[in-house]
Design a protein that fits this description.
heterotrimer, A mainly alpha (261), B alpha/beta (323), C mainly alpha (267), A: 261 residues, mainly alpha, 80% helix, elongated, B: 323 residues, alpha/beta, Rossmann fold, Alpha-Beta Plaits, six-stranded mixed sheet
Chain lengths: 261, 323, 267
């Protein structure tokens, strides 16, 4: 029991540290808040006529439709930022200090993920607030908003695991940073910014099978029409898939890191 | 005409007065050593004299030009090697010196000629076409020095040129500075190393907390301090008792590192036996005893009440005398 | 005697200034040429945005108001200008890094005029911007974008190079003001807003009212329309000169601000 208590304390402390790090450095907080907010404004202002296209789902406004995509973008970039910060810790030797301490190894990774999940939560709240301020309705009301927040936070945890795995494996911040374009690619090849049925090939077909699309739809549905079991379960399944992938990769990468030092 | 004239020079950063109204004068062809601990105001002073920082009070002229009103003319007349050897790791040594030549307005052919000559002078011809990022610390300093000389400046500013270098590299830089001075270049050198100021400088200005506390030739300054002192390393906890015993035998100086008793003695080595006898009679064990002649650190202590550098970095004329 | 000879052989000021600008531009290219893969991020980002936006919003051309049914033709100038914005902002980040490392002191302590030091950085960015622009254009042609004609191409490239110069002035101003790479997000976000708060994704008539108003006063709108004209129709002087005027104005204002910061580094 005391081991669990120690691990929980460590996770809390490292999580708090990673949150403080992010908010103290403009280069880390900017991709999570500034750029997605700018893009939301630009895309909402520039492409909102798209709601007139035949086949566009019934929405109150394009902003209402776009909120889920903005949250996803922020969450993905939070995962990437978290991975970069973790890699910087490895390069600077801070993780060596942690490995040398009498704390469970998994707590070190979980601490970093806790920080990323907290940023995901922040992203969800931020964009929900922006939506409400600029007139978007949450059709699922409070339960719908809570579901959206929970899914975004869980996704952040899942994506953060992938970021942490890459950081542990490579030990290099520039490698993790180099994945930023990949994050954009994954986002564009999903239904984050437009209905999948109205996208242009080959993006349309790729988006149909992209796990991120399932998560986006799970977050979007409670906002534009209300809680739907199918979309929710599909989103949860996609998140679990990424969590499992992240866990496997992180465990292998952690063993690798402990071996090479 | 003096190479550098400074009158009441001041620099404030908000409430903090980093340089508090200093006056100094450096003659043409002189090596002026500007000595002081970290944070004393040396680099701030150099940055004002090299036009990188505007003074907030007073005035200064370098090579006959005011550093504020005639900044461009000052820049044409000076060479600068700052504390951080600001080099581009992606450039080769040769490229860097040629770029410096271009920045100084030299025609391309002349710039190439100077680059080749200077690389040979500082012993970097063999590495001239390698990227600077592959150079050692000593090589980078030599390259930085060569770049500062490309336009044959009248006045050369060196801001802590040997900090972080090994003894061999340090000696190489010293030789180069002496050679430059023999050729007529005025050198303004900041350092935190006593030996460097002692060895190189014709005149030394000692700065502490933004003020010049002493100025003169190294010998004159040391002569001011007066007598040699004895340094005694006594047992754990015995410093206060040892000081009490020694109080009547000479002039006590501030203890060093809390472990050594420092006693100024008027008659040098002749006073050592009675000091040892007195401590022995008081039952105080002396682990080691050294007779130390005045150094610039002693000058600093006399003027400021604290040491310039830590015991382990100290160098001076020491005559170890066994306990 | 030697000083007098040296003075007699010194090149005229204009030639020395040009040589300095050329030397600084040569140095700036080192990062692209000597660091493996350094060019990739600057090329990848606008390319991904181009392909991504085309894949996501391509159906918008079905709406009334679009002059073309080819969304890739409509959007490629946006991505080229975005690339120019990234490149210019990167020049600002590099300057901030140089400042932190002490390199800028080396430049400031030389007798080279401040505007010459700034011009080297800005013109290097301008030239560099042609690399991602050409890459994006190649991809656009590969997926069916319209050939803009030689005149359309020239005007577009001119707009791109000048936009990169604007971005470099903006980035340099921030770099010299804050003297730190932590200003990088502001450099990038500023240019992103300038380029995209325009009829970037759709014609003006289809924008939301607030964005329509912003686009009307944003000088970058004229630049975008000038760059886009060959891809969606024909090139006319009437559609070109407003872009030139807008860029001249932006360069004058941001260039002056950057120069002011360059001159105040010693305060």
């Amino acid at each position: 029991m005391s081991d669990l208590a120690t691990a929980a304390r460590v996770v809390r402390a490292l999580g708090a540290r990673s949150i403080r790090q992010t908010f103290r450095r403009p280069q880390l907080i900017s991709p999570i808040v500034v750029f997605p907010t700018l893009l939301l404004a630009i895309q909402t202002g520039g492409a909102s006529a798209g709601v007139e296209l035949p086949g566009f789902p019934p929405v109150q406004s394009f902003l209402q439709f776009m909120l889920a995509g903005a949250m996803m973008q922020s969450m993905m970039l939070a995962g990437n930022s978290g991975g970069i910060a973790f890699a910087v810790d490895i390069e600077m030797g801070f993780t060596d200090r942690l490995f040398a301490a009498p704390i469970p190894r998994f707590a070190i990774v979980l601490g970093r993920l806790a920080g990323t999940a907290a940023l995901g939560l922040f992203a969800a709240l931020w964009f929900l607030a922006i939506g409400l301020v600029f007139g978007a309705h949450i059709e699922g009301a409070v339960p719908g908003a809570l579901l959206a927040i929970a899914l975004v936070t869980a996704s952040a945890l899942a994506v953060g695991g992938i970021g942490a795995a890459i950081a542990l494996q490579s030990g290099s911040a520039s490698v993790v940073q180099g994945l930023f374009p990949l994050v954009l690619v994954v986002l564009f090849l999903s239904s984050a910014f437009f209905p999948q049925e109205l996208m242009v090939e080959p993006a349309k077909t790729i988006a149909e099978y992209n796990p991120l699309s399932f998560i986006v739809e799970g977050v979007r549905e409670p906002i534009i029409s209300g809680i739907d079991a199918t979309h929710t379960l599909e989103a949860v399944a996609a998140i679990l898939g990424i969590v499992v992938l992240g866990l496997v990769l992180s465990a292998r990468a952690l063993r690798h890191r402990l071996r090479v030092g | 005409m003096p190479a550098i004239v400074v009158e009441g020079l001041e620099r404030a950063f908000g409430e903090v007065l980093a340089v508090q109204g200093i006056d100094l004068q450096v003659e043409e062809g002189e090596i002026y050593g500007f000595l002081g601990p970290n944070g004393a105001g040396k680099t701030t002073t150099v940055r004002m004299l090299t036009t990188l920082l505007l003074p907030t009070g007073g005035r200064a002229a370098v090579a006959g030009h005011d550093v504020v009103a005639e900044a461009r003319q000052v820049r044409s007349s000076i060479g600068v090697a700052l504390q951080e050897a600001a080099l581009d790791p992606l450039m080769t040594g040769r490229e860097l010196i040629r770029l410096q030549a271009t920045l100084q307005g030299l025609p391309p052919a002349r710039g190439r000629e100077r680059a080749d000559g200077l690389l040979e002078r500082v012993g970097l011809t063999y590495a001239a076409d390698r990227r600077v990022g592959t150079y050692s610390g000593g090589m980078q300093r030599r390259l930085d020095l060569a770049a500062a000389l490309v336009h044959e400046p009248r006045v050369l500013f060196l801001d802590e040129p040997t900090t972080g270098l090994d003894p061999v590299s340090r000696k190489t830089i010293w030789e180069e500075v002496r050679d430059l001075n023999d050729e007529g270049t005025t050198v303004f050198l900041t350092t935190q190393y006593l030996e460097e100021a002692d060895q190189l400088a014709d005149n030394v200005g000692i700065i502490d907390s933004g003020r010049i506390v002493a100025e003169g030739t190294p010998e004159a300054l040391k002569g001011e301090v007066g007598d040699p002192h004895v340094e005694l390393l006594v047992g754990e906890g015995a410093v206060a008792e040892a000081e009490r015993v020694c109080a009547g035998l000479g002039k006590l100086l501030p203890p060093k590192d809390g472990k050594r008793v420092l006693l100024e003695v008027a008659n040098g080595a002749a006073d050592v036996p009675r000091v040892v006898r007195a401590l022995d009679e008081a039952g105080i064990a002396v682990e080691s005893l050294e007779l130390v002649r005045p150094s610039l650190d002693d000058v600093f202590v006399a003027k400021t009440g604290h040491h310039l550098e830590k015991e382990e970095a100290r160098s001076g004329d020491e005559e170890p005398v066994g306990a | 005697m030697e000083a007098a000879t040296a003075q007699a052989t010194a090149p005229p000021a204009w030639r020395a200034n040009l040589a300095t600008i050329a030397a600084l531009m040569t140095r700036a290219k080192n990062e692209l040429v000597r660091v493996p893969g350094a060019a990739i991020p600057g090329v990848l980002a606008p390319t991904i945005f181009f392909l991504g936006l085309n894949g996501v919003f391509g159906a918008l051309t079905q709406l009334q108001g679009f002059e073309t049914s080819s969304y890739e033709s409509f959007i490629v100038p946006v991505s080229m200008l975005q690339g120019a914005g990234f490149t210019g902002a990167a020049a600002g980040v590099n300057l901030a890094r140089d400042y932190e490392g002490g390199w800028v002191d080396r430049l400031l302590v030389s007798p080279a005029p401040r505007w010459v030091l700034l011009a080297g950085n800005v013109l290097a960015a301008s030239l560099r911007s042609l690399v991602p622009a050409t890459f994006v254009l190649g991809i656009a042609f590969a997926i069916g974008a319209r050939w803009p004609g030689l005149d359309g191409l020239v005007v577009c490239y001119l707009m791109v190079a000048a936009t990169a110069a604007v971005a470099a002035c903006w980035g340099s101003m921030l770099a010299l003001r804050y003297k730190s790479q932590s200003a990088a997000p502001l450099m990038q976000a500023g240019m992103m807003a300038l380029v995209l708060f325009t009829p970037a994704y759709a014609p003006t008539e289809l924008l939301q009212p607030w964005l329509e108003k912003v686009a009307e006063i944003n000088p970058m709108t004229q630049v975008l329309e000038a760059a886009r004209q060959g891809f969606v129709g024909s090139v006319t002087w009437a559609d070109t000169w407003p872009g030139l005027v807008a860029l001249t104005g932006l360069l004058a204002v941001l260039g002056a601000l950057a120069l002011r910061e360059m001159r105040r580094t010693n305060v």
